[in-house]
Design a protein that fits this description.
Blueprint: H1 3-14, E1 27-30, E2 41-45, H2 50-57, E3 61-66, H3 83-94, E4 97-100, H4 103-107, H5 112-121, E5 129-132, E6 147-156, H6 157-167, E7 174-176, E8 186-196, H7 198-201, E9 208-213, H8 216-224, E10 228-231, H9 242-258, H10 263-269, E11 273-276
Parallel strand pairs: 2-3, 2-11, 3-4, 8-9, 9-10
Antiparallel strand pairs: 1-4, 5-6, 6-8, 7-10
Length: 289
């Protein structure tokens, strides 16, 4: 088994691909036709941007785990004139493969949505708060779609805003208020969806909808139906999870090395470095004039 296939198998244990939404494109998106020599680094990123590809090419990277799929819709051609396609071609030529977990990582237990729960309510689950899925739990018990946090002690919306901004290390967030009390509104329930959550959150019974982005009309619909909205930018609800993902991968690698199911595979995994990209960043900035 190749190093890339070994890491893909580990990712499949962390976030089983069958948990992904039906419309999603997950798994090994690009398998390089040759092995990059002396490459013992896995690079984690939210998006496969040209800057991230340059970072991978300048380091001994063999696999990029890109949370968002660089190929989402069917391609009629792959050319250098398209920046994203050029990035994929450069990776393939250099012997760098690309893997995507996307919504499987959102929905799995202890994945991104569960991580976001701790950012709004703190780490003491079952003491200060509880959580349930927006939809049904998956049949295998591995997770579910979205989360609804119920606080055991209600808090002012102002405090929730502060928690999200500070925990995600953001200078700005966007808030739409549904009631005249605005930030003094008391909050007991928060519906959560990483990334773009409008289609999932609308219609959910919760005091606050918390996600990365919603369309103008989705925000209006939420507010007019009595739900406050907190937005902080699509990838800002995802990027902070990458260090946690790196730790998970490292733990699974160490487990495989110490208790190998395949000695040859365990040998491949030795000395592997898991690194969070330094070039991956939210594409929008807020300008104060």
């Amino acid at each position: 088994m190749s190093l890339v296939r070994s890491v893909c198998r580990i990712m499949g244990r962390i976030a089983p691909l069958h948990l992904a939404e039906k419309w999603d494109n997950v798994g090994l998106i690009l398998e390089a036709p040759h092995v990059r020599p002396h490459a013992k680094r896995i690079l984690l990123t939210i998006d496969l941007t040209p800057a991230v590809v340059e970072e991978a090419l300048s380091t001994p990277t063999s696999l990029i785990i890109s949370y968002h799929p660089p190929i989402f819709k069917p391609l009629t051609s792959i050319t250098l004139s398209n920046p994203l396609q050029a990035s994929l071609l450069r990776c393939a030529a250099a012997g760098i493969s690309v893997y995507t977990p996307h919504t499987a990582l959102d929905s799995v237990t202890d994945g991104i949505n569960d991580w976001l729960c701790t950012k709004v309510a703190g780490p003491l689950r079952d003491i200060n708060w509880t959580a349930r899925f927006i939809g049904q739990e998956f049949p295998d018990g591995l997770g579910g779609v979205g989360r609804i946090v119920t606080l055991k002690q209600p808090m002012e919306l102002k405090m929730l805003q502060f928690n999200i901004r500070t925990e995600l290390e953001l200078k700005h967030i966007q808030v739409a208020y549904a009631k005249p009390e605005r930030e003094k509104t008391m909050v007991s329930t928060i519906a959560i969806c990483a990334g773009s959550g409008g289609s999932m959150l609308l219609g959910v019974d919760a005091d606050v909808y918390f996600t990365g982005e919603m369309s103008h009309h989705e925000v209006l619909a939420a507010v007019q139906s009595g739900h406050n909205v907190i937005l902080c930018g699509h990838t800002n609800t995802e990027r902070g999870f990458l260090p946690w993902l790196a730790k998970d991968i490292e733990e699974f690698i160490q487990e495989e090395i110490e208790q190998p199911t395949d000695p040859a595979e365990a040998e491949l995994l030795k000395g592997l470095e898991i690194v969070v990209s330094q070039k991956d960043e939210h594409p929008l900035v807020t300008v104060d004039i």
